[in-house]
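Internal ticket #5521
Category: modeling
Description: The requester needs a full-assembly model to guide mutagenesis choices. All entity lines are attached below as received. Residue total reported by intake: 1179.
Assigned to: D.W.
Attached entities:
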Amino acid sequence: MASVKLTDVKKVYDNKVTAVHDFNLEIMDKEFVVFVGPSGCGKSTTLRMIAGLEDISDGTLEIDGEVVNDLQPKDRDIAMVFQNYALYPHMTVYDNIAFSLRLKKVPEDEVYDRVTNAAKILGITEYLTRKPRALSGGQRQRVAIGRAMVRNAKVFLMDEPLSNLDAKLRNQMRAEIILLRQKLDTTFIYVTHDQTEAMTLGDRIVIMKDGYIEQVGTPQEVFDTPVNLFVAGFIGSPQMNFLKANLVKGGNSYYVELLDVKLPLNDEQNAVLAQKGVGSQEIILGVRPEHTTVLFDNAEDAIECTIDVNEMMGSELHLHLRSKNDDKIIVRLPTVDLSKEQRASLSYGNKMYITFPAKVMHLFDPETEKSLIDG
Amino acid sequence: MSEATAKRHMGLKTSRAISNTAIHVLLIVISIIWLIPFVCIVLQSFRVENTGPVGYVMPKVWGTDNYVKLFQTDFPRWYTNTFIAALATAVLQTIIVLCMSYTLSRFRFKMRQPLMRFMLILGMFPGMLSMIILYRVLKDLGLTQANAVPGLILVYVASSGMGYYVSKGFFDTIPMSLDEAARVDGATRAKILYKIILPLSKPIVIYTVLTAFMGPWGDYVFARYIAFGTSAGKNVAVGLYDWLNKDQISNCYTMFCAGGVLVALPVTILFLFLQKYYVEGVTGGAVKG
Amino acid sequence: MTQLSDLEFLKLSKGQKFGYRLGRFFTGIPKAIGNFFLKIGNGLKKAGSAIGREFADIVNTFIHGDWKTKLSFFIMGFGCLARGQILRGLLFLLFEIVFISYMILSGGYWLSMLPSLGKVGPSEEYNEVLDAYTTTYHDNSFQILLYGVLTIFFIIAFIYTWRVNVKQNKMAEKILASGKKLKSGKDDLRSVVDDQFHKTLLALPVTGIFIFTVLPILFMILVAFTNYDGTHNGYTNSLFTWVGLDNFNTMLSWSGGSGGTQSYAATFGEVLIWTLIWAFFATFTNYFLGMFVAMAINKKGIKFKKGWRTILVLTIAIPQFISLLYVSKMFAKNGIINGFLLDMGWITQAIDFFGDASRPWLARVTVILINIWIGIPYLMLITTGILMNIPADLYESAKIDGASGWQQYRKITLPYMLFVTGPYLLTSFTGNMNNFNVIYLLTAGAPTNAAASSASGSVGYTDLLITWLFKITMGAESKYYLASVIGILVFVVVALISLIVYNLLPSIKNEEDFR
């Protein structure tokens, strides 16, 4: 149980490639922080620097107030779960979990208590005498977690622990990690490339790209108020729609002009834009598929589209639409409220009308890719 | 069905049967060719009527005379020399090779690449060249001729670090994350080696021991240099080679065969049991280059 | 040759494509060699600037360092001792003491004698007590050269350690200035099995390689520039001395042959060409036939797969000196092969496989054939593993595309094998160039080449450079300097071939092709 503080942490490899640029983050005691981003964004490198598996090129790393830059992993009091589990193949499950305790010369009685206790929590008691080879993916995952659990370490690091599991098992293990977290009540740092995992697990999410932090915030924050195009596109599934549009200033208020349709902004948005002194300019308009209002008949301020693809997902439909100037727009439409006729009309080539309420519109500057309103 | 279609449909099975029979015959022929010399050597080691080379295979008078005579020569001494040298080399060389290959596989340090490149270049010099000086140095140290065995062991073992390729290739296949997990678990580098890596490396350890043993067991060149002059310092290769020179061949040829059988027997038996590991090492090593 | 674009290349006919590739290959060689020298040049430039920086840093450390640091420039380890790092300090100090006393006691002597390799040779003097002439030995050229080289290494090691000592002081000052603690002796000892564990592990192997390979090779390179041989052994009969490039002149000049004997260059050329021919055939016959046997055993429907393999593998176990010596006697004039052929009435007179100097190619072809017998089991093993790794779906899709067995081999098996085993083939080729065992144990170089035999140690038609080298050192005259020259030339040839092939090998150029 400890706080972790990274100040201007940097990673430069021998070939002069910078993997992580000035990383600043303070992780509170008992917080669950998720590093998320596409592959090569530096999230794993950052985690490995915290673990001590990679040297820190520059900056300081503090665990519980102590600078640990030059400490060996074993002296940092951390526990880690690896992507491919990294179970010792020649040891039984019991020996795997007990390994770190035995290295610390913990008395055998206590080792027994702690290992069996962890096994009970994880439901792997009956496999204790087996070798990892004889376990399924999910069981191996539990052993890997058990091995980290018995350490009672200050910080619990997890490097894409679920990415080797199949989809169903992944959902199940995700729920178990949430439970585990409540039981262990310690600081967690979790790395994943999967935004769903990040959203469901994290108290706070750190979104990274090309070695830079793009945004830090609670799941709600990063979902509602993405500060740039990258975060907006990365969080949420299906991806946010991006459309080229114009922001037009008319007197004290602004509106978005898209395909001759004028979409007004709300007071709050107007106030921010006015305060920032934004004038009329080209923008990229971002709207989440689930926030699109679908109209079956033409109306004022509605954008006319053609249906390309209609994907039936069960509780909802994913409509792939094309606007008059070939913008592609995806729309999520719950099936519950649709009438039979409406459903029938949603087939290839038919016309559709959509519109966006002010509060769901995200405005980005095409040059800087930053949000004009948030951040 | 027309004849042509019938032929097409019958073709697959019959042509496969024909080619399989042909291959079986071929393999039998190959096996015979490969085994004949060894069968001959065994047969001739039991020949009593003539101790020189002859143009026929089957002995006319059978007997173990050659084996008996073998033990009245220096052969037992050579055999012991070779065995001690091979055994010591097997142990020491394995340790050195494993140290080298483990380090090059697991650690990333500044001199790693230069070291590997340097050894590559070093390997392009004919190793025999260095024997000229080593022979004289060892002679000054009194490790040649009658005392050749320690000298030989030194020569075999000393540079064995350069033969790290195969076992490094094996270590490279053990995931790095095992080391990392162990480091996080609190193990020192040394503990990782003997608690995690070595238990997982049984095949390559056996392969290394086996090849390290076989090198000195059949070595001629180095032993020729070091054991120069005295009979007591020879190993089996040098000793048996000298039996085939013009002056001795007519007396010693069948004894050479008997000696050869005794030299080949233990390694062949060893091989029979450890074949699997040898094959693993050889195939793995070739792919890695 | 200008590079074509992909589309232009595709339009070429098969022959044109081949010609184009060949052209690119050969036009690539000068570039590869050029690049190599460019790299060396760049390396030197970098090294130069690095040395400059080191000097600047040393001077800076002295100017800005405190008195402990300054004193450490003269008394190594003083800074460590004064700052409480006793273990490190003592080690530095000990090293300096050992070095200085060595240089005073003997190092200086070896170094001073190095340019001359000894001044006074053994002399016969009249001994009054014994009433006879006895030989008194004086300088020892061999030891002078050996210890001279060692002393130079020792000096380099000392300079390096001194530099480390200076650096440590600078670091220590910096660490103390930032308020941190220095590592204690206990920390140092612990790091030997932990973060510095690689140094511990490498210490023994690298020392071994240094003493038993690097040093001897360096020594032998130097010997190539002396007249060290049986009659100038440097101590008991006569000193040896530097002769500059004379030995290379002897080996590489065409003149010098007289009275029916060749010049060294001619003999060297002949042996080199045979060495290359041998290496080529020994490598590729084994490779293709081994692959063939492996494929035969692998084929679906073949029984006793394990049995066939075991038979071949067991022949690897039998030491080569036994099998090769025995086989060489089988092929002898009075050997089993001739006996069999005579019995059958196929020949009327025994064939002298290895002794007939008028038919050198008979011996050469026989050697290559016997080498196939030696090599196939090994190659069978190697190729079996790789063949089984070729994804089965490649063959399945080829079959559906209508490829015959031969086409499957040409278009899938062979490219895959060549790609994966490219580096192995290269090492195998250079290994065969130096394949002492097979040649020496089978023929010992026979049949003898009478014209070349005066060129120090007899040379035969099947001799490789390496066996020639061996014979020279074992011969009556023991012309070590010539052996060294040959050794250096072997290195040059091997290095050149490796360099060219490495630069053109597909497995190194396009690493991802078959993954």
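Resolution: model delivered.
Comment from assignee: The radius of gyration of chain A is 25 Å.
Ticket closed.
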